[in-house]
Amino acid sequence: MSVSNSPFAVLHGEWIKIRTVRSTLLSLAVAVVASVGLGILNGSSVRSALDAKSDMVRPDFDPINSGFVGVQFGQLALIAFGVLLVCSEYTSGTVRAALGAVPGRGLLYAGKITVAALVALAVAAVTVLIAFVATQRALGPYGVTLGQGESVRAVVGAPLYLALLCLLAVGVGMMLRSSALALTVMFVFVFVLSPVASSVPGLREVARYLPDQAGAQIMKVGAQADPVVGPVAGLLILLAWTVAALAGGYAVLARRDA
Questions:
Q1: CA-based nearest residue to 169, from 71, 31, 76
Q2: SS (HEC) of the chain
Q3: CB–CB of 187/194 below 8 Å?
Q4: Source organism's superkingdom (predicted)?
Q5: Residue 148: how many CB atoms within 10 A of its CB?
Q6: CB within 8 Å of 224: residues ≥ 6 apart
Q7: pTM value?
Q8: Fewer beta carbons within 10 angstroms: which end of the chain, N or C?
């Protein structure tokens, strides 16, 4: 077994793992398909409701916000990508070989984080742009073009939000070392606990500082935007959560055996 302390060799090795592990590739593909497909479906249904002057349409409807409905579901797949990137090695037992090939655990972990960030950001940037444009086309006369209002800020910021959420999942996955457990924790937190907390009056003030709630402000405009946590502040809050999770992951990696 060759041993390497070269950062470039570590990055290359992590890139090869992503390309050869089907679950990680599948999660990235699902992120694109789900975001675009659900965005188009939402845009079409909202257009029909607006044409019919239905009461089902939110009074604070804004086409820019509608452009990210699909992305909010597609983020599930990027969370899964972050978890599987680290947990799949523990499941298969190949983590021992990885640790043997890269003696410095910090270097190995940094390589995973770097590759995860770059891949997630690239996939998210393409996905967000396609999903936003496709959703606006589906909205027809009710849609907006890229550049109107705060759409540029939202389209540029959304990939940063998704990439940070993916890295948060990397940290959680490294701490728990179980794909099933880490995915359950992340999915329940983002799609159950966080929405419930934000809808309960007594918890609403706290919920706005949760990572997903705060980070998502970068995509929201108008009445749906949080008056307390702005888009930049929200992204910084998510960044703080992500750094904490990654630090926790490193602490576990450094202290526990494979």
A1: 76
A2: CCCCCCHHHHHHHHHHHHHHCHHHHHHHHHHHHHHHHHHHHHHHHHHHHHHCCCCCCCCCCCHHHHCCHHHHHHHHHHHHHHHHHHHHHHHHCCHHHHHHHCCCHHHHHHHHHHHHHHHHHHHHHHHHHHHHHHHHHHHHHHCCCCCCCCHHHHHHHHHHHHHHHHHHHHHHHHHHCCHHHHHHHHHHHHHHHHHHHHHCCCCHHHHCCCHHHHHHHHHCCHHHCCCCCCHHHHHHHHHHHHHHHHHHHHHHHHHCCC
A3: no
A4: Bacteria
A5: 12
A6: 60, 62, 65
A7: 0.89
A8: N
What's the pLDDT at 220? Answer: 85
Of the chain, the end-to-end C-alpha distance in Å amounts to 17
Contact call for residues 171 and 238 (beta carbons, < 8 A): no
Give the mean model confidence (pLDDT) for residues 10-19: 81
